[in-house]
TrEMBL record:
PANTHER family assigned to the protein according to its UniProt record, in alphabetical order: NA(+)/H(+) ANTIPORTER SUBUNIT F1, NA(+)_H(+) ANTIPORTER SUBUNIT F
Listed GO CC annotations: plasma membrane
Subcellular localization(s) per the UniProt record: Cell membrane
Entry's transmembrane regions: 6-23, 30-50, 56-79
Membrane topology: Multi-pass membrane protein
Name under which the protein is recorded: Multicomponent Na+:H+ antiporter subunit F
Matches recorded under Pfam families: MrpF_PhaF
Keyword line: Cell membrane, Membrane, Transmembrane, Transmembrane helix, Transport
Family classification: Belongs to the CPA3 antiporters (TC 2.A.63) subunit F family.
A GO molecular-function descriptor: sodium:proton antiporter activity
Superkingdom of this protein's organism: Bacteria
Amino acid sequence: MLEITMVLIAVAILFLLYQLTLAKTIWERLVALNLIAVKIALIMTVYAVYSGQSGLLDIILTYSIIGFMTVIVLTRFVLKGGRLK
């Protein structure tokens, strides 16, 4: 069952990569990037719970915070004009 769950999440990541490359606006790309980071954290969480390695959960939490902050920084960069200024 674990393998099926992880494969389905990986397929969702592939669809998001497709969305990331074909998105028309920067905002759609940022949302796709954020969802990819969330799904990677989800795969790591499923693996950590299944394997019983609770130490991985700290790493996953750190990864999630870094992913969220990256999207916030990129959003502020785009809102302020990006490279145009």
